[in-house]
Amino acid sequence: MAPFERISVKNLTKSFENADGGKKTIFNNVTFELNPGAVLRLSGASGSGKTTFMNVMSGLIKPDSGSVFFGDTDITSLSEGGKDRFRAENIGYIFQTFNLLAPFSVIENVYAPLAFAGKLPKNYKDKALESLNKVGMKEFAAKKPYHLSVGQKQRVAAARVLFADPPLVFADEPTASLDRNSSELVKNTLLELNRKGTTLVLSSHDPIFDDVKPDIDFDLETGVLS
Amino acid sequence: MKYAFILKAVLHSISHRKFSVFTSIFAISAAFAFLAATGCISFGLASTAVNSSLAFPLIVGPAGASDTTLVMSTLFNTDKPAGTLDYEFAEKLEKDERVSAVFPIARSDSYMGIPITGVESAYINEISRGFSEIGEDIEAHDIFSENGRKCAVIGAKTAARYEMKVGGTFFGSHGSVGDEDSELHDFEYIVCAVMKAVNGPEDFAIFTNLKSVWEIHRHGHHHHHEEAEEDEEDGDHHEAAEMHCVHDMCVDIGNKHHAERKITAVLVKTKNPVFTAALEREYSENGFTSATDTGRTVRKLLTYMNKAEKAAGFFSYGTLFLVMIMVFVTILTSISERKREMALMRTLGIGKLPVSLMIFLELLFISVFGTAVGTLGGHALLAFCKPAIDFELGINLEPFFFTGIEIRGAAYTLLTGVTLSLAAMVKIYRMNLVEEIAKD
């Protein structure tokens, strides 16, 4: 993977309508830049808007205003299809739960995003098995997700990220409800990618990540960037 | 590769939701099986009726018999005859210049619920396509030449069902099928021949010599007569005389010779349709007989049958439509349940189009597969049940005949399936799944 070009977040604002009709601002006029291989840490209490920020940054949710540039490409101005293609080729995700597509086998979950995008590399099955092997899940390649524990599912999600080797990874509470071993495995996978130049956007309350020094820390609760 | 993977994903998704997909396909299949059965049975009945009406343009029966009774009790063997008439009417018709052939028939006993019909050899020659089995001493073209024997000619399907072979014997229960007043004196018949299949009601019939029928009834008659004489000696003459009239054949107990030559109908071949109309009029107005133009009566029956078929078709279409709505609701519910899955797909960069296309293809698969399985399964079921249906309805069912009602049903189902699939696809396409999940 070639290191991703600089990410520029410019004047990003997002608010939601409350149940009483009022507006709740999640984040307001956020501007920062991330170099390739940087770590952006999102902090704040549950419900402060960390996931929403990730969704806006990855083009899944439209911002009220502002833009997110990946190099020269403003993801907020891309068409839906353009955003889909961009995500499939450039962004990897690991979520707290619901990481895998239930109808697909473990190995298919690893290569599905690129398969749907029509961007599968040669020997993709071997590469997918290699990724699964790195997270200790090779023997489960043919299993369906409902056969796996929460920790095993997270490891498969990590293998998916390894397989796609994207320039940018969003990790949203990736180790919540995992045992120590699984947490270590997921963390090591993310750090390995980061060492190779992958930009990491991390949101986690797990102390296991305390030793990861972010380039930027964005507290969604206070709106402070540091 | 991309579209191959979408197809693979559809199959995975279907396999993952086996139960709901199976239920949906089963519901569509059941509705189609019903549609196939309706169409094939209606067609079988109609074609049998038409073929039979072409063979015998005129039927003459006893006075008071309705057109339908005359047709159903003679050509289809399904209705009880309305009474009897003298054999002299058949002789009179035979001499009529407008008539090319007459076939007197007399419904007699029954065997296993199948009426035994007394006929002459000419009738067998007329309807049969040869014999699969025939007795060594039997003349194929004059099968009932030996008057003294209770010779029986068996229809192909009756013979197959009851394993009746030439030389075998069976006992007929005295009295017509459906005749609640029938007596239970048993008469022995000998199987003289088994007819080859003619693909008509004759395959489900048993024929015997008309003269044997008269002989059987004369015996029955003597038996009753002896009982009556004993009763008479007891001074109960009037009551004994009534007891003689226990069967249609014995209706004219006062005249023994007439009772011996009673028939239930005459099937008539006329030289042209004008003569059919004239003879029908004459034999309906003479006060002793009734007559019907077979073609006209069958057309009337077919009109009713068409109405029944249309009604059945209407309900079948209604059922199919409801089934499709049910399938659509099931899919919509599952879409709602699958929002997270689809949102994850979108997050992973799987586009709106592939995601909504998957839903479209899933629904389309259910519609097409349900229609195909239902159609083929329905016809296969009919093929499996053909012997029983044929026997019960006296028709020759063509289990793999596709009727217009069925083809239209398939077209409507596929059209509805495609429309509903497109609607679901558009709904998914227009949803912002990630925002919806975020709101939840």
Task: Tell me what the structure shows.
The complex is a heterodimer of chains A (226) and B (440). Chain A has 226 residues and is of the alpha/beta class. Chain A has a single domain (7-225), classed as 3-Layer(aba) Sandwich (Rossmann fold), CATH 3.40.50. Chain A has helices at 50-57, 80-90, 106-117, 124-134, 150-164, 180-195; strands at 7-17, 23-34, 39-43, 65-70, 73-74, 91-94, 168-172, 199-203, 216-219, 224-225. In chain A, the strands form 2 sheets. Chain A has a 6-stranded mixed β-sheet, with helices on both faces. The longest helix of chain A is centred in the last third of the chain and has 16 residues, at 180-195. The mean pLDDT of chain A is 86. With 440 residues, chain B is α+β, with helices and mostly antiparallel strands. Chain B folds into 2 domains: 2-48 and 302-439, no CATH class; 84-263, no CATH class. In chain B, the strands form 2 sheets. In chain B, strands 1, 3, 4, 5, 6, 7, 8, 9, 11 and 12 form a 10-stranded mixed β-sheet that branches. A two-stranded antiparallel ribbon of chain B has the order 2-10. In chain B, a hairpin with a 2-residue loop joins β3 (99-111) and β4. Chain B is elongated and about 95 Å long. The model of chain B is unreliable at 176-184 and 227-259 (pLDDT under 50). The interface between A and B is medium-sized, with 32 and 27 residues.
